[in-house]
Amino acid sequence: MTTPRVSAAAVAALALLGTTACGGGGGAGSDEMHVWMYQDTLVVVQEGAVERFNADSDAEAVIDEVPGDSYVERLRTAMGSSKKPDVFFNWGGGSIEPYVEQGMLEPLDDMLAENPEFAGSFIPSVLESGKIDGVQYGIPLRGTQPVILFYNEAVFEEAGAEPPETWDDILDLVDTFNEEGVTPFALAGADPWTEQMWLQYLVDRIGGPEVFERIVGGDSEGWRDPAVLEAAEMVAELVDRGAFGDAYASVSYTEGGASTLLSEGRAAMHLMGSWEYSTHLDQAEDFAKEDLGYTAFPPIDGGEGDPANVVGNPTNFFSVTSDSPHLDSALEFLTYTSQEEYVADMVANGEVPTTTGAEELLADSPSPDFATFQYEMVRDAPHFQLSWDQALPPDVATPMVTEIESLFNGQSTPEQFVDALAAL
User: Fold this and answer.
1) CA–CA separation, 97 vs 76, rounded Å?
2) Do domains 8-144+315-381 and 145-311+393-422 have the same CATH topology?
3) What is residue 21's predicted lDDT score, i.e. its pLDDT?
4) CA distance 257 to 267
5) Does an H or E element contain 416, and which?
6) Quick count: other Cβ atoms within 10 Å of Cβ 5?
7) Strand 310-313 to strand 145-152: parallel, antiparallel, or no bridges (unpaired)?
8) Residue 113's CB: how many other CB atoms inside 10 A?
9) Which residue of 182, 194, 275, 399 is 20 to 30 Å from 259, comparing CA positions?
10) Is the full-model pTM beyond 0.85?
């Protein structure tokens, strides 16, 4: 199962948010507490939480499911009106920053301080991603989605190769599979957000999380950190070495092109979010169960970043509107996301939870081995970097993705890439 991902272009609509929003809230009726959810198959978990909440609380919570293709725009419209939701689904980072800047969201630090057991129930690196400028505005509501290096075990066996443990292994595998007539890495270059995953890991492994923390803090000169240039040079080397084949710019992820290359053995590896496992279960079940391997992104020799750090989408979050007429009830509802019933429902629905101590529950997952690998990867990560195009504000994220595409397509040099980002 997959947690929805929103692109920088979709979030860009938030920048248009007006400053004349008036008070009120509660959606269609102020006597009900409205919880906005992105409409998909995973919402059954939140429906269960609402049922339990309504049985125990004086407030009456209702879920409003909003179609995914219009979620961002409809939320923007609602937040600029008197019909704001009381609680709403979001992606953290840049997806809520405009609302925070206008004082529309309730800070959650006091609530967490008053409920230390609740605050301590989440994996720290995931909870951290719900902060804006050091203040907590989001509580995890769904599973975690780290970026993982997937590979085709049958293709590796035929080539006599082993999964990479170092960057030199990556380069050697590129040469090995090119000699075998297999594209080393599937890459959906037609959807350039897939390309940023490489830069995210490389910058983190080379310079540590501090490099991007400086950038996301608003210092555009952070792009001139030596780690960014070195990462861009490594990307250019991969491209020149044939790591992604010669047609990756036309391969689509949304249409399943990159995943199909991997499952059919035409590519050996694929760096992608953990939802890739579910994609293969749905589209190539035999491959997923028999030949789909997975491992962590390797360390970089001499790099300052901890090899256990991960990048991707820590989770999705619930935030609370500050002028909700049901503020106390909304804050109480947030605590249901760490309850045992909630976590068990997540696992049964194919999600990997963000709470601590969930190891035993993973045996009930539809894919226990993969769920355990993913959970331990996130649990043990000192730092979990939110995808760049979701962490940054839209006016930076959108052109950044364009510059990443230009780098991968050979339309700009690593030096030009750094200069362009520093100028944003």
Assistant:
1) 12
2) yes
3) 36
4) 11
5) helix 414-422
6) 18
7) antiparallel
8) 10
9) 399
10) yes
CB–CB of 266/183 below 8 Å?
yes
**Identity of the amino acid at 343:** V
- At 262, the amino acid letter reads L
Q: What percent of the chain has pLDDT over 70?
A: 93
Residue range 118-137: average pLDDT?
Answer: 95
CATH (residue range 8-144+315-381) = 3.40.190.10
CA atoms within 13 Å, Cβ hemisphere of 27:
22
Can you count the helices (H) and strands (E) in the chain? 21, 13
* 39 three-class SS: strand
List Cβ neighbours of 309 (8 Å cut-off, separation of 6 or more): 204, 205, 208, 209, 381, 382, 383, 384, 385
C-alpha R_g of the chain: 21
pLDDT digits (tens, 9 = 90+) for 234-263: 999 999 999 999 999 999 887 889 999 999
Tens of pLDDT, residue by residue over 97-121, are: 999 999 999 999 999 999 999 999 9
DSSP codes, 334-372: HGGGGSHHHHHHHHHTT----BTT-TGGGGGSSSHHHHH
Domain ranges, ordered by start, for the chain: 8-144+315-381, 145-311+393-422
CATH topology of domain 145-311+393-422: D-Maltodextrin-Binding Protein; domain 2 (3.40.190)
What Cα–Cα distance (Å) separates residue 416 from each residue in 138, 229, 412? Answer: 36, 10, 6
Distance CA 157, CA 160 (A): 5
CA distance 121 to 159: 44
Token pair 């605590």 in the structure block, residue: 335
Amino acid identity, position 102: Q
The structure tokens 């689904």 sit at: 89
Question: Any idea which residue has 């179609």 for tokens?
Answer: 67
**DSSP per-residue letters across 308-336:** T-EEEE---EEEEBTT-TTHHHHHHHHGG
For the chain, the straight-line distance linking the first and the last C-alpha, in angstroms and rounded, comes to 36
Separation of alpha carbons 58 and 356, rounded Å: 29
